[in-house]
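Record copied across here:
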Amino acid sequence: MQPRLGIYIHIPFCASKCGYCDFYSCAGAAERMAEYQQALLEHIEESAGRIAPAYIDTVYFGGGTPSFYGAARLIELLDAVKATGRLLKRAEVTVEVNPDSVRLHDLRALRKAGFNRLSIGMQSANNDILKMIGRRHSYRQVEMAVENARTAGFDNISLDLIYGLPSQTRSDWADTLAKAIALRPEHISGYGLKLEEGTPMYALKDSPLIPSDDEQADMYLCMVEELRRYGYEQYEISNFARPGYEGKHNLIYWDCGDYLGLGPAAHSCMGGKRFCYAPDTAAFLQDAAAPIMDGSCGAEDYLILQLRLRKGLDLEAYKTLYGKQFSTAQLAFVQNCVKSGYANFDGHTLALTPAGLIVQNSILAELL
């Protein structure tokens, strides 16, 4: 079978920067969009040789805020991907949108052009918390975005949520989960707040406003249980889906498949080799075709990424792909994890439980 490839296209523009955001983005730089669009189109054309040996089965437009960039530009970029002649008819084509910057006519145009999956940045159903973290939308706008998406013909919608936000209680979080479920999306992602140095909210890192580690762990387990009860199966540490609606693009990352990232700060892994582009729009505009080599995707990456998935690490595949197998000491540690309720292990596959996923970093440190 001919190899498959995922394409990630980074749109770094957004109307304003959220207080917690550590992704590479440029707030209020709309005057550079036309120039950036041309550079991206050239970048796609120049990448045709890398793309040619494979079929493209996923395309993901992330950011930044792609919906702020505009539907017409996004459609032009997807058309450029189609022009490579490698995009499969049934490819998953995802675009991230914010509720405040997407309208019904945009959604209709995107759906008609071939976009078939939306990732909507809901984050919380509490309007006070949304305002506190710098989000530009209200919960009512989330409802409208989902309603408009259905009207436009989207039948694959994902909602992004964040727990551990300032002043957020377990009750607040349970309310956000209930309201997200009520919108009946096919997919829900729930991420724990991480305050990175250099972000506006980093000053709150040790503030009593931020829920403690134990409180965040409680919110996490609440999410796992509530979503499971309503038919959303956990397939990755932060991702839940109705059967058949798992995010195909992100599964490429976790299974160490091939993907090509386009745009500043975009990462790629092809043929086991990693490369990326500097998080610098100006540098990208000057020389879009100059990637930075970033090492290889090896056994450690595979182990780490597979243990993010609820299906877990298949030890036979691990040995076949990388010639690696667990030592006696590693197997003894695994058995201790099983006894502690952190893992399931049948002798062939090691899978972390929800409790194990909370302490995943400690488990990985021992296994590595």
Summary: The radius of gyration is 21 Å. The longest strand covers residues 87-97. The mean pLDDT is 93.
